[in-house]
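Subgroup meeting minutes
Present: P.N., E.W., G.H.
Scribe: E.W.

1. P.N. recapped why we're keeping a running log of single-chain structure predictions: easier to compare across weeks, and new members can see raw inputs and outputs side by side.
2. G.H. added today's entry (395 aa).
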Amino acid sequence: MAAPKKAVAPKRAAKTSAPPKAVARKTSASGTPAKATVTKTSASSAPAKATTRKPTPAKKPAPAKKAAPAAVTPAKATPAKAASAKAAPAKAPPAKITPAKPPRNESHTALVRRARRINRELGEVYPYAHPELDFENPFQLVVATVLSAQTTDLRVNQTTPALFGKYPTPEDLAAANPEEVEEILRPTGFFRAKTKSVIGLSKALRDDFGGEVPGRLEDLVKLPGVGRKTAFVVLGNAFGRPGITVDTHFQRLVRRWQWTDATEPDKIETAIGGLFPKSEWTMLSHHVIFHGRRICHARKPACGACPIAPLCPAYGEGETDPEKAQKLLKYEKGGFPGQRLNPPQSYLDAGGIPAPPLGATIPSAPAPGASAPGAPAPAPASAGPAPGSPARETG
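Output recorded in log:
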């Protein structure tokens, strides 16, 4: 009996185990679906996991929201930068126009081009440039030019009306009493030496040239007190013959512009004459002298108000702030009277103000925000120049 029980036991075990095996086989047979089921389950769990991960993306936007203000902050800072960038041009122009100095090995051709370009620019700035001595004939011009040494053209122009009113011709001045002439010329300084010169040249004109001013350089330089500079002023402005006037302003500017490093007037004249056609010499002199008197001053150039700053190798030697530089301008550029009592009409049309007679009221420059330069404002009467007036600068 024990045997059957043992046999039954295995059968039951087999039956009992068979179904699981069969199920296992069915399961394995349908393993793919089962796996698919599992896969589906895993896939279904993936969304669950994804569902659990959704908070993570939700948390990620949170930093993004925190980063958003950071992104907004630069956006807000950008206008500030833009504003500073817009404000920069007001202070930046001098930095932008700072030109590089010409190379040491600048060729002669490059120098000629640079010099002629500067002259063209000056011609546009000062189309009304002219000799700043009042005269009606060559005799008056040669005498006025001799008197302009060591003083301003303004002072000469204020003095010569009395001189020419009393001695209108070379013959009259040649026969004049030196003491009377000295008294008239006293305001110009060095009046004794100047009296001797103008009486001497008047005698030479009377005795050697028939009372007429010669129109040749070699004759002019023979007159007492007349050098090459004076001769070229007379030739260029009374006779229309080209000449370069190498005065203190001309010497200073051509050296600043590195047109030449010469210091002697005759060498400067030769060097600059080689850069320009002869037909341009006279107006070149006027352009350079006008610029030297109005903007490119000896002690403190108004670099910030200079129209040729981009072309100037010496930019920065003077005041570069535009507002401060504007206050340094002289004559019509600064709203002050000019040097001539009877200037050309072109100068008046450009806003120039005639100089007052000797001892008369000196019009002052208009205050900031007032009427445009060219409209004189009253100032206290004074025999001397007003503060900041052009008469304070020699030449």
